[in-house]
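Preliminary data (for renewal application), succinic acid complex.
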Amino acid sequence: MGRLNVTLCGIELDNPIIPASGTFGFGYEFAEIYDINCLGTFSFKGTTKEPRLGNPLPRVAECASGMINSVGLQNPGVHKVISDELPKMRKCFHKPVMANISGFSVDEYAYVASALDGEPDIGWFEVNVSCPNVHKGGAVIGSDACASADVVRAVRAVTKKPVIVKLSPNVTDIVSIAKSCEDAGADGISLINTLLGMRIDKRTRRPVIANVMGGFSGPAVFPVAVRMVYQVAHAVGVPVVGMGGVSSAEDVVEMMLAGATAVGVGAANLVDPYACKNIINDLPGVLDKYKIGDIKEIIGGVKNG
Ligand code: SIN
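Predicted structure:
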């Protein structure tokens, strides 16, 4: 075991770095430029029961220190993911992968999880109840503690694999939602998804994003993510995957001190496709800088007061 190893819901990772869903495709796209087996794992593109074309264009807006997206869960649907995407993925990634799943009803989440459950490459399910870009399902479910728990329970019933639920920051009380998911059988919590944001074109006076609003991510959201990871990690007994604006090995150490067992990297992959590889390479030097022997020592290690 090296000094970067962590264990996430019973599965060992070579390091805590996990490219976040929606920023890393099915991995093979990035395998063209580097060996993605250096990653802890990655969370693949959010998958729904039916194929989805996503939201109308434009669906990206630039912001200072971040970006807004309104992709709208574009994906080929679970059956094409199984027949076309996973075979390409497994040619270049040889570790357990995280399956990010979405739905528009409790039954759809269960359907997608059940369809994917037999795929041997899938180590964990990441149940996304936090997409801000759809008008049904997504964050509509994730902003309600009972509805989130219903989804967790339904997925839990169709798989023995670890179920990690991905939560939205666009809520008043993140802790009660996280606890309710834990009570419903979640093996882990990942957070944060994007913050709901909006830009306006001053010439046309119209929203920049066709869907009006979208999810804001990037370095600007990092302090919000650290705060929410801290709150949730100190309230639940299951591991937390911390994400939101992480773009350096320094950020990884901070996120783990807040309570994260593993760390998602999202928007940074869109700025620099080598971001995760660079973060992994930089981690030993940053651990040395802070006199940290083994990365596991720092999980939840923030001192209060
Ligand atoms: C999207 O596809 O709209 C992004 C997914 C998400 O934010 O959960």
